Amino acid sequence: MILSANNIHKSYGNLAILKGVDLEVERGEIVSIVGASGAGKSTLLHIIGTLDRPDQGHLIINDVDVNHLNERKLSLFRNQHIGFIFQFHHLLPEFTALENVCIPAFINGVPKKEAEKRGMELLERLGVQARADHKPTAMSGGEQQRVSVARALMNNPSLILADEPSGNLDSENAASLHQLFFELRDSLNQTFIIVTHNEELARISDRTIHMRDGKIF
Ligand code: ADP
Ligand code: ADP
After folding, report:
1. ipTM for the complex?
2. Closest ligand 1 atom to the C-alpha of 37?
3. Segments forming the whole domain that contains residue 68
C-alpha cells in the first residue's frame, strides 16, 4: 500500500471541510476523485500531498508517518516522493521548458548535466522535445501541460497527485494526457490520484472515489 489516510479532519476557521476521510491506495493504482465543487476534493489532495496538515487523523505515505516529520524533512520527502500536476500548470514564465522540468532535480542537488539529460528524455517521452528551449508563453496549452507533467515526473515520484489535469485541455489533448498516465503506470508502476470532472477519465480509472460534504461515500 502506498497511501493510508485514516480519519482525516480539516477545518478552516470554524468551517469543517473534511469530516473523517479514510482512503487507502495500492501502489500502481489510478484513482479518480469526483464530487461537486466545494466537496473538499482539493483540500484532501493538498493534505495527501503534504502541502497542508490535517487537524486530526493519520497519514502514511510509502510507510512514512508524514505527520511526524518537521517542515524541513517534510519538504524533502515531498520533493522526492510526490509529483504534482495542476489544471493551471504553474510553469515559471521566465524559464524555458527544459529549465522548468529540471527545477525539482536542482532542488534535490542533481548536477546540471544529469538533470538536463533526464529532462530531455522526459520531454521526448511526452512528445514536446522540440519545445525544450521555448518559454511557456510560446507553447500551446496542451504543450504547457505536457511540460508540467514532465516536471512532475522529474524526480521519479512514486505518487502523482493531479488536480483537474485535463480541465484546461480540449478533448483530444485530454485523452492523450490520460493515456500517458496509464502508460506511466504500466511501465513504471507509478500511482495516480486525480481530482477530475472528466467523466471519461473517471470511467477508465481503476477506482473512482465520490466525495460529498467532506466525506467519501
Ligand atoms: P473541491 O475541490 O471539492 O471543490 P475544496 O477542497 O476546494 O473543494 O474546498 C472545500 C471548501 O473549503 C470550499 O468551501 C472552500 O471555499 C473552502 N476552502 C478551501 N481552502 C480554503 C482555505 N485555504 N481557507 C478557507 N477556506 C478554504
Ligand atoms: P517502456 O517500458 O514503456 O519502454 P521505459 O520505462 O523503458 O518504458 O521508459 C521509456 C522512456 O521513459 C525512457 O526514455 C526513459 O528515459 C523514460 N523515463 C524514465 N523514467 C521516467 C519517468 N519517471 N517518467 C517518465 N518517463 C520516464
Report:
1. 0.65
2. 4
3. 3-216
